[in-house]
């Protein structure tokens, strides 16, 4: 436990200082060349490399005193690899969209789609490129994330997508009625200050027959049911450090990461969704996918 916790801190340092980014641009070299390339002190870099090698993140050749960041590790750790990392898009295309019968065909024909808590818009940008006949809208509270998403949409020449900075606290009555054919929310609802109002607003803004797809953490609302969850300590920690805190900082409900399936289904029912399907993917032990239709 102590080793993994320490390694997490060192991985964070590697990300924040640009060491991973810099190493991904270099062939196997010594610590001095790495330090020069990224503009850091060699002594600190060498000690950091010790942790990375001992932790199995970086490869070390003692004969030449060379360090190397393998490409498959760089793909998970480097900023520049994020837009090219196809794993999230493969999951979206091959596993998530098919959860709603006929949705890919409807997207090809042309519908209106809203993504709540869209972040930098990676999923929505991908969909906008794949389905040019549909219109996509992303709502996000973070100004910097919205600006980044707009810049990327402009760079790709996408005219069928727009991003708005928006506070969803009063979405239950501010949402435009019967406006969207599909609403998505990927790990976003439990962070909200007023999650029930957001869910109410989603039901309000869906057209009759429209679909809501919500991805959220696969867990129980009851602690005793989570004791065998393979990453329960991590998820409760993430909740304490971020998800719950983001909501409580705005005097919100503070559902937290582990709000659980039971409470999620109850709140979705209160929002007006009479039938909630809870779907799971064989390769994904971390998430539930809630699929609903507005009657």
Structure commentary:
- With 295 residues, the protein is α/β, with parallel strands linked by helices.
- It folds into 2 domains: 79 residues, Arc Repressor Mutant, subunit A; 208 residues, Rossmann fold, CATH 3.40.50.150.
- Helices cover 44% and strands 18% of the residues.
- It has a 7-stranded mixed sheet with strand order 5-4-3-6-7-9-8, with helices on both faces. Strands 1-2 form a two-stranded antiparallel ribbon.
- α3 crosses α4 and α11 packs across α13.
Any descriptors?
Rossmann fold, 295 residues, seven-stranded mixed sheet, alpha/beta, two-stranded antiparallel sheet, 13 helices
Topology of this protein?
Layout: H1 2-16, H2 19-23, H3 31-38, H4 42-54, E1 59-61, E2 66-68, H5 71-77, H6 87-96, H7 103-109, E3 112-116, H8 122-130, E4 135-140, H9 143-155, E5 161-165, H10 171-174, E6 180-186, H11 195-205, E7 206-217, H12 232-248, H13 260-271, E8 276-279, E9 287-293
Parallel strand pairs: 3-4, 3-6, 4-5, 6-7
Antiparallel strand pairs: 1-2, 7-9, 8-9
Give the gist of this structure.
With 295 residues, this protein is of the alpha/beta class. The chain has 13 helices and nine strands.
Tally of DSSP helical segments: 13
Mean pLDDT: 93
Which CATH-level-2 architecture of the largest domain? Answer: 3-Layer(aba) Sandwich
Strand content: 15-25%
Let me know the CATH homologous superfamily of the largest domain.
Answer: Vaccinia Virus protein VP39
* Whole-number total of structural domains: 2
Number of strands: 9
- For the terminal residues, how far apart are their CA atoms? 49 Å
CATH class placement of the largest domain: Alpha Beta
The shape is: globular
**Biggest sheet, in brief?**
7 strands, mixed
Multimerization state: single chain
Fraction of helical residues: 40-55%
